Amino acid sequence: MSAWTDILDELYQDSWNPRLQRFRAPFAFRGMGRFNHSLASSLVRQAAGSADVRRLELSLLRNFRKYAHNEGATNDSIWDWLALGQHRGLPTRLLDWTYSPLVALHFATEKTVEFGEDGVVWCVNFVEANRLIPRRLKRLLDDEGSDTVTVEMLSAFRTLKAFDASASKPFVVFLEPPALDARILNQLALFSLMSSPSARLDDWLQQQKPSVWRTVRIPAGAKWEIRDKLDQANVNERVLFPGLDGLSRWLARYYMPTGQPARHGALAPARQERNTAAVRRPSRAGSRRRAPATASPSRRRRSAGRRE
User: Fold this and answer.
1) Alpha carbon 248 to chain centroid distance?
2) If you average pLDDT over every residue of the chain, what do you get?
3) What distance separates the 2 farthest-apart alpha carbons in the chain?
4) Residue 62 domain-assigned (yes or no)
5) Is residue 288 part of a domain?
6) The domain containing residue 274 runs over which residues?
7) I need a labelling partner for 144 at 20 to 30 A (CA). Which of 15, 226, 262, 290 fits?
C-alpha cells in the first residue's frame, strides 16, 4: 500500500455517522508543510510575545473597518469584519480550516521548498469540541440544528469582549464564514475561533481528550506522490484560488522539476522507506513534468491537471 492510500485512510478515519447512516466526518482539517508548525494565530504571531494582544486586536480591527469601509463587509457586525479581515490577510485570532481532507493535503504539500520536511494535517472533531463551549453558544447551535456557528449566530455577542466573557475557561468554536468569494466556497473553508485573543489552539488541544483531536504526519518522502495525485484529482491553486494569481502559482509549481525521477506509479526507491502515515494522538487522557491538457492552446499533452 502506498503513502497516498495510508494517509487517506487515516484522514477519513471515524467519518461514519451512525445517526445519519452516511459518511459525514465531524472534523475540521488544517494542513501545514512542516510538522513542527504551531497553531498560533496570525494575531499572536504579530504580537511576537511583547504587545498587548487584546489591545492590538482592537486596534487592527478598528483601523481595518475605517480604511476598508468602501470595500468592506455587507453587514457592520464585528464578526463580519473579523471574517473579512482574516480572509484578506489581516492578523486575527482566527485560523483557517477546511471540511475537506484533500484541501488540507494541498496546503501540506503546496510549497516545494518544504518537501524535505515532514508535514502535518491537524484534525479537530468540532462536535466533541462543542461539548466544552458555554451554554449560551450551545443553545444557539441547538436552535439552528448546526455544529458550527455563523456570523449571524454570533451577533448575539455584540463585542469580542462579551464573547470572551461568556465562559470562565478557554474554549474553541468553529465558524463558517460568509461566502465572500469563490475562494471560500472552493476551499470548503471554516475558521476556528477561540475565546481569548492570546490563546493558542495547540496548547488548548493538548489538554483535551483523544476524541477531540489528532494529527496525521505527512512524510517528506511521500509529498511528491501526494502532490501529483492531488493535481490529478484537480485539487490545486488554480481551483482553490480562482483567478490569474492562482493560475500562475499552479503553473509555476506544476512545471518545477522534482530533482529525483520516480518510477511509474511509485516513488523512487530511496523514498520508499518513509511512505507510512503516522498519526499522533494526544498523550494525555526531478525530471520535467508533463503539462496538463489545457495548459497550452497550441499543443495538447496528456497529463493530469492540478487543483488548489
Assistant:
1) 21
2) 86
3) 64
4) yes
5) no
6) 3-280
7) 15
Check: CB of residue 221 under 8 Å from CB of residue 277: no
Query: Once rounded to an integer, what is the mean pLDDT over residues 150-169?
Result: 95
Give the integer Cα–Cα distance in Å for 80 and 153: 11
Long-range CB pairs of 291-295, under 8 A, 24+ apart, other chains included: 291/254, 291/255, 292/231, 292/254, 295/251, 295/254
Cα–Cα dist 305/290, whole Å: 10
Report if residue 301 sits inside a domain: no
Element (H, E) at 53: helix 53-67
Average pLDDT for 126-147? 95
Q: By the 8 A CB rule, do 37 and 120 touch?
A: yes
Q: What is the number of other CB atoms lying within 10 angstroms of the CB of residue 240?
A: 25
Residue 149 DSSP code: B
Q: Which three cell numbers stand for residue 146?
A: 448546526
Report the number of distinct structural domains present in the chain: 1
Query: For residues 185 and 284, what is the distance between their CA atoms, to the nearest angstrom?
Result: 36
User: DSSP letter at 132?
Assistant: G
CA distance 92 to 119: 24
CA 106 distance to own-chain centroid: 9
Q: Which amino acid is at 265?
A: G
Within-domain flag for 293: no
| pTM value surpassing 0.85 | no
Torsion of CA 127, 133, 139, 140, to 10 degrees: -80
Q: Hey, how many other C-beta atoms are within 10 angstroms of the C-beta on 268? A: 14
pLDDT of residue 41: 97
